[in-house]
Amino acid sequence: xxxxxxxxxxxxxxxxxxxxxxxxxxxxxxxxxxxxxxxxxxxxxxxxxxxxxxxxxxxxxxxxxxxxxxxxxxxxxxxxxxxxxxxxxxxxxxxxxxxxxxxxxxxxxxxxxxxxxxxxxxxxxxxxxxxxxxxxxxxxxxxxxxxxxxxxxxxxxxxxxxxxxxxxxxxxxxxxxxxxxxxxxxxxxxxxxxxxxxxxxxxxxxxxxxxxxxxxxxxxxxxxxxxxxxxxxxxxxxxxxxxxxxxxxxxxxxxxxxxxxxxxxxxxxxxxxxxxxxxxxxxxxxxxxxxxxxxxxxxxxxxxxxxxxxxxxxxxxxxxxxxxxxxxxxxxxxxxxxxxxxxxxxxxxxxxxxxxxxxxxxxxxxxxxxxxxxxxxxxxxxxxxxxxxxxxxxxxxxxxxxxxxxxxxxxxxxxxxxxxxxxxxxxxxxxxxxxxxxxxxxxxxxxxxxxxxxxxxxxxxxxxxxxxxxxx
Length: 472
Known about the structure:
Blueprint: E1 9-14, H1 19-34, E2 42-48, H2 54-69, H3 75-82, E3 85-89, H4 95-108, E4 115-120, H5 127-137, E5 145-150, H6 157-168, E6 176-179, H7 186-197, H8 199-204, E7 210-218, H9 227-252, H10 261-272, E8 275-276, E9 284-289, E10 307-314, E11 324-329, E12 336-343, E13 357-363, E14 367-376, E15 381-390, H11 401-411, H12 420-438, E16 444-447, H13 459-462
Parallel strand pairs: 1-2, 1-4, 2-3, 4-5, 5-6, 7-11, 9-16
Antiparallel strand pairs: 7-12, 8-10, 9-10, 10-11, 12-13, 13-14, 14-15
């Protein structure tokens, strides 16, 4: 049976006129409505600096859903949802506007005390303004306000710590939901659930059994319209800091007895805080696709990386000397995200024999592969046996990434959200890499569009006697 919300709530989208709201949040709210997840009484409120009438905003909301689903839109459901949509125009920096906003909500909800969920679909530069003004204009600290803040969380360890301490002045940690949309993917969530439900799989993922781990996240598109943002962060901050390090944590963490947010976040933090990155030019490869600097708004001398590969280890007994390789980049030969866990071979096995592998594809396909090796004595040839099956959610009630996460917030759960401690530990690693890059101590390799990235990436696994495994 599908879980449905029973208590009334207000869901405010700050930055409601922006692209994220139109592309992801509004269509997701429609899908939740389509599955009868919502109670009879709920309020979706757009808050933005743009001057709009309520009817104009409802039109924007409706058109964003129709654009996403085309002819498949259920007009009756969408029209019913639109009746719950409202709009308020205000400045994020003005406390007077937030006082007026509180009065607007009280009038709209007829002064009922109900859950208020605030989604930050805004640039990080205004995070603090919204946090402060929401905190200072609520009637009581007992008001049930939940903040959903989407990455990036700071731009380095120092700014992440400052954000943590700033938010803590106004809200408890349990009221803050730090969202990385990767953790809403069915395939990423399956890493934890497969490990907890299958003892044989969990045994395979002990460090003592593993030769190396490879995490690959390739994109075939470039930066696109995100050039202003991307020039400030680069692919290390954009992809490795949260997405890839979170996948690493889910693969290597100890499995907690209890499936709750506190337990899972504790174990992920244990991994992230144990990362040992020999951060030097021998263990980091950065690249930039050709003609990136030709884009409007980009300096001809830019050193912003569009590709990164990193070799690291975990400072834990079970993972002693087990290398872990991460790589990610744009404008590559395909869009593909996958994890390869290469298991150790017996000491007596010849070097040329292929190892056993566990492969988890995260996107665009969502599949798990287990590769075994069999020897045919008559012809003295090996046969690879691969068992493959889908881990995609294909039954009634499946939701997109943001849908799973938004529903979790409304339920008051936080299993698939981050803790500030995880974020700060991840920044500790990433800061070492970006510091080397900023000091020009890392070469920036050029690579062609549609290639697999800089050839220098192959030096990382080669140091340990391995090579990148490309499942295609």
